[in-house]
Each structure stands twice: as C-alpha cells, then as structure tokens.
Amino acid sequence: MKLYDYYRSSAAYRVRIALNLKGIAAERAFVHLRHGEHTQPAYAAVNPQKFVPTLEDGAHRLTQSVAILEYLEETHPAPPLLPGDAAGRARVRALAQVIACDIHPLNNLRVLRHLGTALGLDEAARNGWYRHWIAEGFAALEAMLAGHPATGHLCHGDKPTLADLCLVPQVYNAERFACDLSPYPTIRRIAEAARRIPAFADAAPEKQPDAE
Amino acid sequence: MKLYDYYRSSAAYRVRIALNLKGIAAERAFVHLRHGEHTQPAYAAVNPQKFVPTLEDGAHRLTQSVAILEYLEETHPAPPLLPGDAAGRARVRALAQVIACDIHPLNNLRVLRHLGTALGLDEAARNGWYRHWIAEGFAALEAMLAGHPATGHLCHGDKPTLADLCLVPQVYNAERFACDLSPYPTIRRIAEAARRIPAFADAAPEKQPDAE
User: Fold this and answer.
1) Which residue, A34, A111, B119, B169, is the most exposed by fewest CB within 10 angstroms?
2) Under an 8 A CB cutoff, do A71 and B50 touch?
3) Domains located in chain B, CATH noted
4) What's the gap in Å between the CA of B81 and the closest CA on chain A?
5) Which residues of chain B does A132 touch, with a Cβ-Cβ cutoff of 8 Å?
6) Which of B49, B105, B140 lies nearest to residue A48, judging by beta carbons?
7) Residue A48: its pLDDT value, please?
8) pLDDT tens column, A169-205
9) Distance (Å, rounded) from C-alpha B14 to C-alpha B68?
10) Predicted ipTM?
C-alpha cells in the first residue's frame, strides 16, 4: 500500500493510526499542503478532491479517510476497530462522524483560507470561527460520551475504535488552536488514554518524516 | 422504528430514501428546524447534537445519517445499498462522504445562520458561500464519476447505493439555492435517473407530511 500523507492533516492522521493498529506497512508519499502541492495537476490526477489522504492498494486508489478506515477494517479485520454488534457499530460511526462531518470539514485549511481570501477575515476572526465549531462539536461529543454506559477507557469500551481514531487528531488540532478543553473532561480523559497507545503515539504529526 | 425528521433536512432525506428502498415502515416525528424545535431540551435529550435525523430502533437511538444508513444496511441487507466488493464499497462510501463530509456540513442551516449572526454576512454573501462549496464539491464529484468505469446509470452501476442517497438530496439543495449545475452533466444525469425511482421520489421534501 501507499499512503499520500501530510503530517498535519488530521484526516491522514486517522489513517496512520489505523495502519499502525493493524500492523500494515505502507509506503509514504508526502504532499505538502502549505506549499500547495495538493493543488498541482500531478496530485489532482491522484485525488480529484485534492485532499490528503489517498491510499493506494494495488490497482485501487481510495479517497476519503472514513471510507479508507472502513476499507482497512474489511480487508484487515484484526484487530477490529468496530464493535461486534450493529448498534455498537452505529454508535462508533456516529461518534466518528460528529468529528469527520461536523467539526473537521468546517475547520480545515481550505475553509480557513477561504474565510481570509473571500470574506476578508483576519487571523483573530478565523481563530474565533475555529473555536466556535470545536465548542459546538465537542459539547455534543462530551454529552454522547459522558453519560453513555458503553463508554469505557476509550470512546466505546476499552479497545480502540474508529471513534478514537477520529477523536485524537481532532483534540490535537484543538490544542494547536488553543481551544479551551476544560468543559470536556471525558474527551480529554479518552484522548489522553488513547495517546498512550503506541499505534496512536507513533502516528502523531511531530513523529512523521515530513514534520517541520 | 421511529424517525425524527424534517422535510427540508437533506440528512433526513437520505434516511427516508433508505427506509423506502428497504421497505421499512417507520413512525415519524417532525422536528421543525426553522422554528427551532431542535434546540429545545426535549429534542436535545434525544440527540445531543440537536440535529435531525435521529432513528429509534427499539432501545437503540441512532444519530448521524451516514451511521444510520450503515446500520440499516447491516440490519436490513435487502436490497443492498453497498456493492459486493471492498473496493466498490470504498468507492461508494467515498462518493457519499464527499457530500456528507465536505459539502453538506459547510452549507447547513446552523452554518448559514452563524455566517449571518456572528460574521454579519448578508443574504447575497451567504448564498455566495453556499454556491462556492457546491462548486468545489461538485467539481470533484463530477471528476470522480465521469471518468470512472464503475459509474453506470447511477453513481456505482445501475442500482442505488449510499452515494445516490447522498447525491439526490444535495442536488435538490443546490437547485433550491439556484446553483449553476451546467458544469456537472454526470451529476445531473444520475440525479435525474435516481429521482425517477419511486423510493427516491416519495422521499422528496415536497412529498412529506410536514412540508410547507
């Protein structure tokens, strides 16, 4: 397999954790988002959205991080990253999608740039935007996690699931933008526990070969 | 089952199509988003994100539309809404997530309201925002669909998949906001074909009991 990656991409970070947990060695190709390498024709031919990650597996070229996680789960089922029951899987996918659909896409680099270039927002206003959607999303996540009997050391029981793979990169980003995480003790507790797992620790942005 | 629904919610629209295709009769509870019913404590207790849809199945309360679609696929496998091969499933999920992650969350009601109240954007500027993210997302989708051998009458072959369930509501919204869809002939062709299927037609916003 070959992963098109960028150390600070939180969507790529999710896939790095999955590859580590499942013991899959993947070749890496680094696409420098801040230098705009993703917008060049060579990468647009790989991924029409011009996003990272892209995962190549033989002749298959896979895009969208959550679709990639589901593909890895199906093709490399051990260790499982989804629970054994349909309702549990639905809960884990919902937790993952609160992040993957309703937090991260509002706050990624292309949106922050658009707020600056098209709407003329300065850095303080862009940071306010960022923190607003973190607060909205994390308040919902905290409510979904704190009161639920299936929540364990991690988001769903004590073993990593897709929910944790999405949570840890999002918490990393929130800390980078100096968001106040004190209202979310369950999120903080789970992120701390997950980060101690080597597969998560080794996937962290600062550990990647392209980190600056 | 019981679906918490709102006729104009495109995430709920996806689930309505799935229920129709799979022949599942669900009780309906209507949550009026424009009247703010979703922000009331009664509904926040049902869904901590205060979004529609929510699907109740016995003791299970399911949120996030794509997680709900996957749950329905697992618990009611006929007719299948995902292909039989892992790479095909990954493609369908990626197409669905281009919409569910990278178009719809940027353009939903809470974001448009925030642009108005927090950033002071007038209606013309909000519509510009809307159309910008439709154009970004549909350009990528068109490239993913037009050139791919697996694209058929619908997004993946000739039978409905999760990708079509996400595409039709997004095209409906784009038309409502008067987006120019002429650059996306494959998207328009597929949406037209899917809309002729009764399960899709019956799920359309204007056909719902709470339509205004």
Assistant:
1) A34
2) no
3) 2-79+200-207 (3.40.30.10), 86-197 (1.20.1050.10)
4) 15
5) 114, 118
6) B140
7) 92
8) 999 999 999 999 999 999 999 999 999 999 999 999 9
9) 10
10) 0.97
